[in-house]
Every structure is written in structure tokens, then in C-alpha cells.
């Protein structure tokens, strides 16, 4: 489809074909076959969105019925006279505060045709931002599917951080909860909301981060995370790393940058302060004693008492140690080995289809589900049923 953007100030007459200067004298038998062009009521068919720019304005003409029937925020402009982002000028003409006229026109064309072409992850995120601002649920969900389809080690952190903009940081739906349900059961559930799609995509971002933790933790973007973002990642149980030192190094690097952001001295005490309980996320007792001593000599993420406690356990295996319940729990967490695989993602696209993952991984998840099934109570099962249909949306 050709671009519909034209400089503000132009008129429909300017786009009419040129005619010759030759004229014909009218006769008594000649009558007008159509009303004059200026009498046509174009406002009944089209609506114009005027994008205000710094140097020049642009007009995007759209099908009025398509906008009115879109059920998004723009459909309200004909009743209320405008929205927060769209202001009515006169009949059929509205001013819009948009910095990206190309993306806004793509959004308008989507409302008309229900078709849109994505270029890359950044472009999809930009369109998702527009769709969310104008509350276009079907485009929001289409963007989520596209983001999931092309989610990679290189793009996952960009997508993960963008999700925080849409208030979707809620306890993620777990892929293990989406197994063992029939297609008929899936059809009985109501339509899903964009928020539920965001939660599923967030879950899939975290799942991919778990699978490739060692590679992703070395990306510069990791040290730019907020505390909440970092916490959500490093507390994941199934982080796939060859050594726990990978996580320790990430916490060391992030705490240094956080001290700089807070304009405080980069000391071991300040590093522990900005990390808080995240200092305890590495599984220290799965390392060797020499590895642990090498780490603490570089950066002390544990205080002197905690270092002494871990060292004593390395040497004595808790024999003769008078531990408090809190210390016992801490030591048990330090000794806990990580699962061999993370859980499977929720299928939002062909990429996240379970069949694309190794058989060993699928077998492990299936056995884990079987072990956990008796522990589920009726209330929990009801909640899980509400999200089950995600596994079948794209079949």
C-alpha cells in the first residue's frame, strides 16, 4: 500500500489530475452529471489525523468506519471529541502528538486492514508501545507473538526490560502448568487479555535467560538492570552455568556499577548493601574450597562471619558446628545443586513449541510434573486451568 502521508496544508483538489485549458460552451441540453467536488462530504467517509512536527506537519487520512469499529482508544474520538493523545480540530480532523509518523501510519493501516509488517525486535517494541498506548488489544497480542517468535540471546534482555513498561511484572505463568490438558478444555476458557500475553512472554524471556545464563550474564546490559530486574533473574533456580562463579562475577560487576550510580564508595560493605539478599544467590558450597577462597579474595560479597561459616562447612561438613535455624537454611541453600534443565516455555509462537527442545529436557519436565501433581490442591488446580489454553492458542 502506498504511503498516505502528505504535508499539512495540501488539499484534495491538489491531487486532482490536470486538465487542458480548452473549454466547451454549454448548451441547453447539457446537465451536470455529478455534484461539484467541493460539495462532497468527505468527513462521512474519511478522518484525518494531523501529526504535529517541529518543522512541518503531516496528514494521514484513514477510513472512518475502520477507526470507529476498531474498539481501541481511537474509536472514542467520534463520541468524546478526542483523547489524551488525540485532540479534535473540527469535523473529521484531529491533531495527534506522535514523534514517529511512520509507525503511527502503520498502526492506522493495521486498524483498516488487520495486517502489519514487522522489521526487527526494536520496531516490534515500538509498535507494541503504540498499541498499548491506544489500547489496541489484538495488535498488542500480535506484537507479543512476533517478539516471542524471534526471541534470541541477543534480543532477550531488550524485550525483558521493555515488558516492565506495560505493568506486566507479575508472578509468571509456569510452562509446567500447561501440560496434560485437552484441546476441548482449552476451548472452554475465555479469551486472554494482553496482560496475560505479557506475563507469558515474560515467562519465556526468563526461561531463555535460564537456558543461556552463562552467555547472557556476560552482556553489558546486565550491569544496567534495576535491582528488581536483577533480582527476578538471579533468583531463578535453573540457571544453566558451568560454574557458580559466573553468577558471582555478575553480582560483583553489577554492585560496582550500582555504587557508581548511587555515588557511593566502591567498598565490599557498600556492594553488599546494594545487593542485599542477592549476595546469597550463588550456590557457594557447590564450588571447591579453592574457588570460594579465590572469589572472596577478589570481592567479599559475604561478610566475615558468613565467610567463616562457609569455610567451616567446607572443612568440617557441619560436624561440631552449632548452627542457628537461619544458618542451617542458608547452608542448605548454598549446597543445593541446580536442576539439569529449566522448564519449557509457554507456546506463544513456533519458536516456543515444546517439540523444538531436546527430548531429555521434555522428559525431565514431564517427570517433574508427574512428581508435583499430587501436591496440587483444588484451588491451585483451578488457577492453572485458567492459563492452560496458552498451550493450544497457536496449534
From TrEMBL:
So which residues are the signal peptide here?
none
Which Gene Ontology BP annotations are present?
neurogenesis
For this protein, the record's Gene3D superfamilies field holds:
1.25.40.420, Potassium Channel Kv1.1, Chain A
Residue ranges for the region (Disordered) are 1-36
Task: Write down any Gene Ontology CC term.
Answer: cytosol
Q: Which domain of life is it from?
A: Eukaryota
Q: Which InterPro entries match?
A: BACK, SKP1/BTB/POZ_sf
- Domain BACK residues, every copy: 200-259
What is the name attached to this protein's record?
A: CSON005378 protein
According to its UniProt entry, this protein's organism is Culicoides sonorensis (Biting midge)
Lineage here is: Eukaryota, Metazoa, Ecdysozoa, Arthropoda, Hexapoda
User: Which gene is this protein's source?
Assistant: CSON011236
